[in-house]
Amino acid sequence: MSSSGAGALAPPGSAALAPRGATSGSTRADRRRARARRLGVRTIALGYLALLLLAPVAMIFYRTFEHGLGPVLDALGEPNFQKAFWLSIEVVLIAVPLNTAFGIGMALLLERGRFKGKALLGMLIDLPFAISPVVVGLALVLVYGKTGWLGDWLTEHGIQVIFSVPGIVLATAVVSLPFVARETIPVLHELGTDAEQAAATLGASGWQTFWRVTLPGIRWGVVYGVVLTTARALGEFGAVSVVSGRIQGQTQTLPLYVQDRFENFDITGAYVASLVLALLALGTLLAMNLLTRRTRAAKAAI
Amino acid sequence: MAIEVQSVGKRFGTFTALDDVNIRVGDGALTALLGPSGSGKSTLLRIIAGLEEPDEGTVTIGGADVTSVPARDRGVGFVFQHYAPFKHMTVANNVAFGLTVRRRPRAEIQERVKELLALVRLDGLADRYPSQLSGGQLQRMALARALAVQPDVLLLDEPFGALDAQVRAELRAWLRRLHDEIHVTTIFVTHDQEEAMEVAEQIVVMHEGRIEQAGTPRELYESPRNEFVMTFIGPVNRLGDAFVRPHDIQLLSEASPGSTEALVQRIVHLGFEVRVELTLPDGREIWAQLTREEAQALELAEGQILSVRLPAPREFAA
Asked: Looking at CA atoms only, how far is residue A187 from chain B in angstroms?
């Protein structure tokens, strides 16, 4: 019985040798093809990035300094530029903390809360991503403008939202709303509730638990969300363009200033402002990167 | 402090996690909640800690009704199954947490942390981070953290569940000694009957959200109240509706009144213990437990036919 079983096994075994040899040959070819494919994908990805992002940004650098430092310094000294620069900074400094606090709160609510309509709320948070910024701007005008829904009440109390700084802050906050929440929710989920419950059994209050356990646990998600929010807030054009009225030297943010200079054939002014915008964004990225790296290095060093 | 749980029930949706549960744990006792997964033992522990709210019933600690007292005011130390370390804090800061949030003076905190780290034998590791500790070390850190606030009650959820066998055995013995030293009322949850028997003074056996039986390890082993307790605690042979402990089966070298024949199928040597798998004349299979000496004296061999005397089997009303 058993010997016949072994005999029955032998032929397919020996027959299997030939195809196996063939397979190893085809594996080599497969590997070569895979390598070629990988190279191809890489080339396309890098080429795409170069064409769309690197080349234009590099061109801005080049064009800015094309005629030496003099015109650049002149453009930087332009009062309207300085006004736009500080307005952008102001808007970011108000909108980003607001959205950070809101984003963390929302993430906690969506991840830890138990209530009806949670799914709906989760969808609503993403709405600013889905709607065109211009539409956001128009919607804000419809609510807060002079003839808008809240217009009479606001005028009565002497508050001007549209065509002034509050409107710009509002528009910027709306379009950059989802970032912190979206980046924080998965980290919060990953963190789990065990550590928070442990803190509770050790006598920590809700606040103490949040500041000492939850926030340190989700800080990388928050940091990343803040970087994205800042970048978006700095660069926002569409919504701000609608609500600001684009008043030179008053409600012009940096992106609006760039557009204005460009349209008025002040190419150097446009390039310089663009460069400053790019550097601000780069600075934010770098600062966050250094921050995370230093903390990690400190931890690893122990 | 004594803990009393009265008529506690808890449902998650349609699933009944606990159904009319009553237990009493004496002051300073070391008690095990023992049961298979899904028996409700962890839920009961979390209800005692205040991490879960019962749908009905009350929990009293030291005579005071704490049913609606939040976890942070219960004076309960809780050790989580996966230790729940604060990963961004050093071991010392983890242990200090309960004192830090109570805003105790720095010097007092440092002193107490040092004391506790010595107690759990983590002296040299105060400045490490949880990610740099082994499972057993994390376990002891979690324990020190829970003890730092001098809880009235210490609760441990599957304290040895995630550790490998050797560390487990060491920690068991150590927990036992620690309890003798600090004498805090302790309840731990386990699904491992051997662990419960070895560590606990009192065992509460749970099954499908109900208490099956509570008593000392010896009581449970010698007089189980029902089939579940009989089969869950200690090895058992099932003969129809009756049960026989393997070490109660006598193997005889020659037939005697009341004995039956049996065929030796397999002999398993486990060091001191020898397991003999037998087939009875009616085809039923059982196994007997002998010491090495007994097995040697009988000169057991596989395929051998010998005489077996079965003890009076235990039967439980359905």
From this structure: 14
Contacts of B70 in chain A (CB under 8 A): 200
Residue B39, SS3 per DSSP: coil
ipTM at complex level = 0.84
CB of A203 within 8 Å of any CB in chain B? yes
- Same domain? For B31 and B114 the reply is yes
- The domain containing residue B119 runs over which residues? 3-230
What gap in Å lies between CA A234 and CA A282, rounded to an integer? Answer: 11
In sequence order, which residues have a C-beta less than 8 Å from that of residue A38 and are 6 or more positions away?
Answer: none
Q: Supply the CATH number for residue B187's domain.
A: 3.40.50.300
pLDDT in tens, A239-298: 999 999 888 888 899 999 999 999 999 888 999 999 999 889 888 888 888 877 766 655
In this prediction, residue A298 carries a pLDDT of 55
- For residue A181, count CB atoms less than 10 angstroms from its CB and return exposed for 0-12, middle for 13-18, buried for 19 or more: buried
Q: Is A202 on the interface with B (CB under 8 A)?
A: yes
Q: Domain A68-301, what architecture?
A: Orthogonal Bundle (1.10)
Chain-centre distance for alpha carbon A276: 19
B62 plus B153 within the same structural domain: yes
Backbone angles phi, psi at B30, to 5 degrees: -115, 110
- Output the domain CATH number for residue B270: 2.40.50.100
Say if B237 falls within a structural domain.
no
Task: Say what the pTM is.
Answer: 0.79
Residue B238 covered by a domain: no
Q: Which tokens is A199 given?
A: 């803190």
